[in-house]
Amino acid sequence: MPKIVFVVPPVNTEEIWGELAEEGSILPPLGISILASLTRNNGFDTKIIDFLAEKNDFNSAVNRVLDENPDYLGITSTTDMVCSSIKFTQAIKKRNKAIITLLGGPHISAVPIETMKEFDCFDFGFIGESEDTLIEFLKAHKSKRDISDIKGLVIRKSGEVVYTGVQQSVADMDRIPLPAWDLLPDITRYYKPAVINYKREPVTSFVTSRGCVGQCIFCDTSVFGHRPRAFSSGYVIRAIEHLNREYGIKEICFRDENFVAFRRRLVEVCQNIIDKKLDISWSCNSRINLADPDTLRLMKKAGCWQISYGIESGSQRVLDILKKGINIQQIKDTIKRTREAGIYTKGYFMIANPTETKEDIQMTRRLMLEIGLNDMVLEYFTPYPGIPIYKEMENYGKFNSDWKNFNTFSVNFMPYGLTQSYLKRQFKLFYRDFYFRQRIIFEYIIRLGSFMKICALLTKFIKFLIAK
């Protein structure tokens, strides 16, 4: 029986979260967990090793994979993890060239030819949604059939790197199996969102849809595209019940781009949670212009305690540049409606946006402080490969295109007229001004309910603020 091992490579967390590494989330790798379910169901000996969650050092991680001696090694990687993935795969191939290495995920989906040309440690690349592509590939490769007509692959053929064409995205989402949570390290022990992102334990994350209709210039849609698709309400409830029954999960962070977009399904999910009396609390993401009062009240009744909104900027001019499709008044109204429904609000903001000025940044700061948010996350605009204006970035500012510098909590793009020192100073001032307020501190005391947790969080936060 052919053996495939899926891995999350060992990564320095500063590569992903920059200065906020100590408070970063470690979440279950749902993508490879779904692929592992599929390969196991199709008769392949399947294993997952998450070196990021287990915090293995580099050499022991390499040795562990070599000890497994798989026929196939599957790696998924974002751009902020790709340098670690490359280094790890090179070490594996150096000691055992017979292992067939497979790379999928957002980075190679955005820059497939470039990645495969530059790094020969990867034998095959998988572009976009890989459920169908992977199974077709493994069956063909096992029987030594030609793979060049399988869509969604990047292969090496006659000395050239060749893309075989677009694989159709999964239309019937319910045919995808539940993730192989049982193949991961204990999900209640090794995985946890940042402390500000949950109220109850054990807690985990789940994604129930793919695709986004938004046209935001900072989003890479190379994997899932712009056509939204979702698991049915029955599938979502089955997943919740499974997590609750098998792992004792009490809270779920739904990490869909826009959980509220599928309104009919959302109502069905909420009503099922209520009717079945499921002991679950949850949070989710939503676009600003989708949350209506009736839906918000139902979500609250069904256990939703927090909604995160992508606000990005307090400058209407910048919002229009970003193609957010929202306006300042909508932001204010939605935050107010959500709070009136008894649901906490979190706002996502960005600075260092293309064409942004110091005045724009201060407008964002004022909006952030005025609209009554309970939480916020500030990030830097990061021009990941695959975003709509990636090839135009030098028109807007100074841009360090080295992949190892890519994460949204470090400056790698500076709009003309702004400096790195100014941006870094504003970054810390935003966090200081938002969280060092009496209302926010009092809310956290109530939410965390633990003196030790509060002290630990405060210590990390002060360390972040005073760091150079």
Report on this structure:
Helix 10 (263-276) runs parallel beside helix 11 (293-301). With 468 residues, this protein is of the alpha/beta class. It has helices spanning 14-17, 30-41, 51-54, 58-68, 79-95, 106-110, 112-118, 131-142, 233-247, 263-276, 293-301, 316-322, 328-340, 358-370, 420-435, 438-448, 451-466, and strands at residues 3-8, 45-50, 72-76, 100-104, 124-126, 153-157, 160-163, 203-206, 209-210, 229-230, 251-254, 281-286, 304-312, 344-351, 375-380, 397-399, 413-415. The chain is globular.
SSE arrangement:
Blueprint: E1 3-8, H1 14-17, H2 30-41, E2 45-50, H3 51-54, H4 58-68, E3 72-76, H5 79-95, E4 100-104, H6 106-110, H7 112-118, E5 124-126, H8 131-142, E6 153-157, E7 160-163, E8 203-206, E9 209-210, E10 229-230, H9 233-247, E11 251-254, H10 263-276, E12 281-286, H11 293-301, E13 304-312, H12 316-322, H13 328-340, E14 344-351, H14 358-370, E15 375-380, E16 397-399, E17 413-415, H15 420-435, H16 438-448, H17 451-466
Parallel strand pairs: 1-2, 1-3, 3-4, 4-5, 8-11, 11-12, 12-13, 13-14, 14-15
Antiparallel strand pairs: 5-6, 6-7, 9-10, 16-17
Q: Widest sheet: strand order?
A: 2-1-3-4-5-6-7
What do the pLDDT scores average to?
Answer: 92
Number of helices: 17
- The backbone outline, from C-alpha atoms, is globular
Report on the biggest sheet.
Answer: 7 strands, mixed
Query: Helical percent range?
Result: 25-40%
Poorly predicted tracts of residues: none
Percent of residues in β-strands: 15-25%
Radius of gyration based on Cα positions: 22 Å
